[in-house]
Write a structure and sequence with these properties.
Layout: H1 19-39, E1 63-67, E2 73-75, H2 87-100, E3 106-110, H3 116-128, E4 135-136
Length: 149
């Protein structure tokens, strides 16, 4: 007679192996850390400083028309944001954005050293394209040192 051993059933393992998930998350973290600085685009503009309240968090990215110290105008939508644009192109691109998304905030970022008339011309171009209201961007002033009596 052969003696049969009773079979012992192994229970399935109910734990999740998270090591592969951690590896994937670390790789994604490194990728985002490398690509995030590359995503910021724009033109270097020396903004005037003013004590203003910051705008609330917007759901949409604002349409920004930048005017550098040479008086050249740049738009943050469309082709290359570092390529100066002609007024007709600015009007066309702004109108296209506002037609698709009418609630898009519209801002002018004028350099501190640019002629005031050039900033006003930029605002007029945006209004010709259909912008109801145009805001001006400023930098906050540096924190002043506390006064000692």
């Amino acid at each position: 007679m052969s003696a049969q051993r009773p079979r012992i059933r192994k229970r399935p393992m109910s734990q999740i192996n998270v090591v592969p998930y951690i590896d994937v998350m670390l790789v994604l973290l490194v990728i985002f850390m490398i690509t995030a600085p590359l995503l910021t685009q724009g033109v270097k503009v020396d903004l005037p400083q003013a004590n203003t309240e910051p705008l609330g968090a917007e759901k949409q990215e604002p349409l920004v028309l930048s005017v550098n110290s040479d008086g050249n105008m740049f738009l943050n939508v469309g082709g290359d944001p570092e390529q100066p644009l002609q007024p007709s192109i600015i009007i066309a691109r702004t109108a296209a954005v506002l037609q698709q998304q009418p609630r898009t905030p519209v801002l002018v970022k004028g350099d501190r050293g640019v002629d005031y008339g050039r900033v006003v011309q930029a605002m007029v171009l945006l209004q010709q394209a259909g912008a109801d209201s145009v805001g001006l961007m400023t930098d906050p002033p540096p924190p002043s040192s506390p006064k000692v009596p």
